[in-house]
Automatic annotation (TrEMBL):
PANTHER family cross-referenced by the UniProt entry: ABC TRANSPORTER I FAMILY MEMBER 17 (PTHR43423)
One GO biological process term: phosphate ion transmembrane transport
A Pfam family annotated for this UniProt entry: ABC_tran
Sorted UniProt keywords: ATP-binding, Nucleotide-binding, Phosphate transport, Transport
UniProt-recorded name of the protein: Phosphate import ATP-binding protein PstB
Superkingdom classification of source: Bacteria
PROSITE patterns noted in UniProt: ABC_TRANSPORTER_1 (PS00211), ABC_TRANSPORTER_2 (PS50893)
Gene3D superfamilies linked: P-loop containing nucleotide triphosphate hydrolases
Gene Ontology annotations for the cellular component aspect, listed alphabetically: membrane
Disordered as annotated region, ranges: 1-23
NCBIfam families to which the protein is assigned, alphabetical: 3a0107s01c2 (TIGR00972)
GO molecular function: ATP binding; ATP hydrolysis activity; phosphate transmembrane transporter activity
Residue stretches making up the ABC transporter domain: 29-268
């Protein structure tokens, strides 16, 4: 076990120390028979999926099929929505993460998130990056952490001369990479990305995509995208969610139609619903 792993905070402080970490190449996150409701509306039905470690997994599917809901389950962001309710299991490193004994704040340190719209704080570039580490009580060299995180996010060269200017003065693409640097500074194991490029121009999008490729040696990435070319370009695995068959109650929760290696899903999809979606016959 590495020093870094030994120092990871336990999700449930009262739980015994977890067993030795699973070998690389296995799954890091899992949903098992997951169903989600917002009030009386079911958003997801019986989703089972294992997210492979150190790979990029794309979640695709038509609007409203529950991609963001599934993504947010993985770091308990849905807990912030009062009408949210779930059944089934969620695991991180083979430990359950949906129980009341799990501290969502600790979980979110290990499973970070980048949002659709770049959302830097109205603070300096430096403070944006150092903020999470500071509130987590980081005792190392903060200047070094800020530089390392900005370099890792492929932003250092563009901002090294303006670390003490507002993060809001950066371009949209730079702001999104600043948000990625902010996430990296907390040293998570997984990065959840909810349509991270939808507000970016093609050049900024390409930068973020290159960055994802660069990061996957050290992190597991799960990305929600509407852009099928982006899923094809960036991901190793793709999960296609679909709205359930319309017969019945009238409401259509999201279901998992297919989870396959990306090249297989886009060339020889196993499920006819996946084929209909990727060929544009289901919007
Ligand atoms: N906070 C919420 N309160 C109530 N219902 C919600 C909430 N968030 C999502 N939903 C509902 O849950 C379902 C799934 O929404 P979700 O945003 O997860 O889908 P999505 O596939 O990510 O959609 P899109 O591609 O349009 O972003 C939809 O019917 C949506 O209206």
């Amino acid at each position: 076990m590495s020093i870094e792993q030994q120092q990871r905070p336990a999700l449930d402080a009262s739980a015994p120390a977890p067993a030795a970490p699973a070998p690389a190449g296995d799954s890091v996150l899992a949903a098992r028979g997951l169903s989600v409701w917002y009030g009386s509306t079911r958003a997801l039905r019986d989703i089972s999926i294992e997210i492979p470690r150190h790979r990029i997994t794309a979640l695709i599917g038509p609007s409203g099929c529950g991609k963001s809901t599934l993504l947010r389950c993985f770091n308990r962001m849905n807990d912030l929505i009062p009408s949210f309710r779930m059944e089934g299991g969620l695991e991180f490193d083979a430990e359950g993460i949906s129980g009341a004994e799990v501290d969502p704040v600790t979980l979110r340190r290990r499973v970070g998130m980048v949002f659709q719209k770049p959302n830097p704080f109205p603070k300096t570039v430096y403070h944006n990056v150092s903020w999470g580490a500071r509130i987590n009580g980081y005792t190392g060299d903060m200047d070094e952490l800020v530089e390392r995180s900005l370099r890792r996010a492929a932003l250092w060269d563009e901002v090294k001369g303006k670390l003490h200017r507002s993060g809001l003065d950066l371009s949209g693409g730079q702001q999104q990479r600043l948000c990625i640097a902010r996430t990296l500074a907390v040293e998570p194991e997984v990065i959840l990305m909810d349509e991270p490029c939808s507000a970016l121009d093609p050049i900024s999008t390409a930068r973020v995509e290159d960055l994802m490729e660069d990061l996957k040696d050290d992190y597991t990435i799960v990305i929600v995208t509407h852009n099928m070319q982006q899923a094809r370009r960036t991901s190793d695995m793709t999960a296609c969610l679909m709205l359930d068959d319309p017969r019945g109650s009238g409401h259509r929760p999201g279901v998992l139609a297919e989870f396959s290696p990306t090249d297989v899903l886009f060339t020889t999809p196993k499920d006819p619903r996946t084929e209909a979606y990727i060929t544009g016959r289901i919007g």
